[in-house]
Amino acid sequence: MKRIAVVGGGIFGSTAAIYAARAGHEVHLFEKESDLLQAASGINQYRLHRGYHYPRSSDTARSAKNADVSFREEYREAVIEDGRHIYAIAKEGSMVDREAFLKFCGEQGLHIREIAAEPYLNPDMVSLVAEGEESWMDPEALRRVVLQKIRESGVQIHLGERATTETLKDFDTVVLATYARLNELVPPEAGVIQEYQYEVCEKPVVRLSGLENTGIVVLDGPFMCADPWGKTGLHVLGNVVHAIHATNVGRSPIVPENLAPFLDRGLIKNPPITKIKEFIESGSRFIPALAQAEHVGSLFTIRTVLPRLEKTDARPTIVTKLSDRYIRIFSGKIGNCVEAAKEVVALL
Ligand SMILES: Cc1cc2nc3c(=O)[nH]c(=O)nc-3n(C[C@H](O)[C@H](O)[C@H](O)COP(=O)(O)OP(=O)(O)OC[C@H]3O[C@@H](n4cnc5c(N)ncnc54)[C@H](O)[C@@H]3O)c2cc1C
């Protein structure tokens, strides 16, 4: 039995902690916020990806589809199964056309059913409207079920505790699952600082009548999406361009001072900084009903991706043994967290 510290109480760190404890280790989970899943794991687009979203990266699509099974087994209570998942291809500016998307779905074994007309989408803007078979995650339910499993598996949880090199010095193994802060605790002897691309993102939450239980994604380029925000009846908007307030490639994120207080703080009502106008203007070209949407507030967090992958938009999950004592989880899609946890256990 080893003494293991897992740093980061997002879905990847929490799941790794649960699996390590089930494997018989003494596990301590450190999360600097006062609750679990407050950062990217609680603030995202809530899609349990099966692959539809990644027609330019068959690796990402394949790994999302494969991982989907184990995520559902572990976190079934947090998966929203019913609902309509509409995928559309933009007529102009898309990096993948209608035929290529349908071919990709066929090759990946992704069921897709073309729809003649979708009332919420402007037919002049899209060359394909189709329904796929996907699911969403309910962030509140996910937080509850993760906490319950952490307790059941015997993980010792340290909420509100920022781990430092000093905190970690007496553990046999340290698992870093800190996403936007992955480089902060990498020990010098491991010598493997990785550059990432950081994006300070806004997710507007809106009241949007008519789209209940429906998610719409316009592919494949600088477009938009709208998905249910758990079971609240509200929608979360995504926009490949306007969601990003600041971006940098480097060892750590550069967060504009005026946005820092809002990061990972849940729903900010009447945020003093918002791109809601841009979201509505560009989004309503595809979904006209967006023009009447009521802005309820916005969520802010940092997205961390590998740099220079714009061509494929790939989102790999990579578990790396950095040294005798350190393991790093770089996370791609949430559905991959159980498979990543199994990889961590195999490395312990
Ligand atoms: C805008 C956006 C939309 C997305 N949409 C989707 C989607 O629809 N579907 C999907 O599958 N994925 C999506 N993703 C990606 C997904 O959200 C992330 O890959 C995933 O949530 C990251 O999980 P994590 O556990 O690695 O990181 P996080 O959830 O960010 O957790 C890391 C934790 O580490 C903690 N921490 C950092 N440093 C320390 C320290 N020193 N001590 C203690 N704690 C520390 C932080 O407080 C944080 O809670 C999206 C991401 C973003 C940002």
User: What's the average pLDDT?
Assistant: 95
Distance between the termini: 10 Å
Shape from CA axes?
globular
Assign the CATH superfamily. Answer: D-Amino Acid Oxidase, subunit A, domain 2
Percent range of helical residues: 10-25%
Low-pLDDT parts are: none
Largest sheet: 9 strands, mixed
**Contiguous helical run count:** 7
**Secondary structure tally: strands:** 18
Please write the string of helix (H) and strand (E) elements. Answer: EHEEHEEHEEEHEHEEEEEEHEEEH
Radius of gyration: 20 Å
Q: Tell me the count of domains.
A: 1
CATH topology-level fold name: D-Amino Acid Oxidase, Chain A, domain 2
Oligomeric state of shown chains: single chain
Which structural class should the secondary elements be placed in?
Answer: alpha/beta
**Ligands and ions found:** flavin-adenine dinucleotide
Top CATH class = Alpha Beta
Strand content: 25-35%
What does this 3D model show about the protein?
The protein is 23% helix and 28% strand. With 348 residues, the chain is an alpha/beta fold. Strands 5, 6, 7, 11, 12, 13, 14, 15 and 16 form a nine-stranded mixed beta sheet that branches. A six-stranded mixed beta sheet has the order 9-2-1-10-18-17, with helices on one face. The protein has a three-stranded antiparallel beta sheet with strand order 3-8-4. The protein contains seven helices and 18 strands. The chain has a single domain, classed as D-Amino Acid Oxidase, subunit A, domain 2 (D-Amino Acid Oxidase, Chain A, domain 2, 2-Layer Sandwich), CATH 3.30.9.10. The site of flavin-adenine dinucleotide (FAD) has 36 residues, from helix 1, strand 2, strand 11 and strand 16.
